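I need you to check the entry underneath: sequence plus fold tokens. Let me know what the token row says about the fold.

>
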Amino acid sequence: MKKIKNETELVREALRIGAIYVEKRKAAKFEQTDSSRQKIEYLYRLLVHDNLIQPLVKGQESEQNMKHKLALWISRQLPEGHPLLK
């Protein structure tokens, strides 16, 4: 997969927005003691379950690929002209 510009920052924003989505959906609540890896995997799986992102091919479900999917998801949610999209 081609790396996205500002991917690290986009993943951070995806986790921030994703935590709000998870709580509003009453699916779970992210705690400060949860590792970023756990948050990434949980958010990825929830978004796949809710059909908001397309799942990765079996065997390619690595943390890096999940981060990439989350970065793509959040980049489509952000308004046009957002600083992370430049």
